[in-house]
Amino acid sequence: MVKGATQNMNSVRRLFTGRVNRSNWLTGFIAVSVISFVLILVLDLALGFTSLALQLTGLNVLFWIVAAVIVVIVLVWSVLAISLHVRRLHDLDNSGWWLLLALIPFVAFLLFLYFLIRKGTPDSNKYGEVPPQGIQGVGLWPIIFNSYDV
After folding, report:
1. Distance in angstroms (rounded) separating the CA atoms of residues 88 and 148
2. How far apart are CA 46 and CA 48, in angstroms?
3. Model pLDDT for residues 10-21, shown as the tens digit of each residue
4. How many Å apart are CA 13 and CA 55, to the nearest integer?
5. What HEC string does the chain produce?
6. What's the rounded Cα separation, in Å, for the pair 96 and 87?
7. pLDDT digits over 60-87, tens only?
8. In whole angstroms, what is the distance from residue 87 CA to residue 99 CA?
9. Cβ-count burial 102-116 (b if 16+ within 10 Å, e if not)
10. How far apart are CA 101 and CA 121, in angstroms?
11. Which one is predicted more confidently, 134 or 93?
12. CA 103, CA 85: separation in Å to the nearest integer?
């Protein structure tokens, strides 16, 4: 049981280590945004239908199951999005803690522009080697889940 928990923590820790360059960050950012939008839209429609069913039949268990699934999806995709931004900050040779600035509304937009415009450090930095350029055949999975060696 402890071994499994340690492996899970290493998997989560891996999400927040390393670097991601501008093009891969933008690709991953768009992918996470679109996928989460579609998932939430579909589940929101399902929640609406279960809400209608709740009014008609009184079955509120289905409503809470769908609501719980929405919460889990939002949490998982939020962790993936945050890890992508942290790795972009690492590429810029900054700590991931700088992402807390995104909690300030106008600063979040400026941080997005900073991610989009500024090139990463050209050589290795304290956060890792230079990330692979482009998604040449690796697809979105390695970008989002930081698994280039899979």
Report:
1. 15
2. 5
3. 566 677 778 888
4. 44
5. CHHHHHHHHHHHHHHCCCCCCHHHHHHHHHHHHHHHHHHHHHHHHHHHHHHHHHHHHCCHHHHHHHHHHHHHHHHHHHHHHHHHHHHHHHHCCCCHHHHHHHHCHHHHHHHHHHHHHCCCCCCCECCECCCCCCCCCCCHHHHHHCCCCC
6. 7
7. 676 677 778 778 888 888 888 888 888 8
8. 10
9. beeeeeeeebeebbe
10. 21
11. 93
12. 13
Q: Which amino acid is at 37?
A: F
Question: Residue 7 corresponds to which tokens in the numbers above?
Answer: 């492996």
The encoded tokens of residue 12 equal: 């989560």
Q: Token pair 């609501």 is at which residue?
A: 67
* Residue that has been written with the tokens 């970008």 in this structure: 143
What confidence category does residue 150 fall into, taking pLDDT thresholds of 50, 70 and 90?
very low
Q: What is the residue whose two structure tokens read 């928990």? A: 5
Which residue matches tokens 């807390």? 100
23: tokens are 């093009």
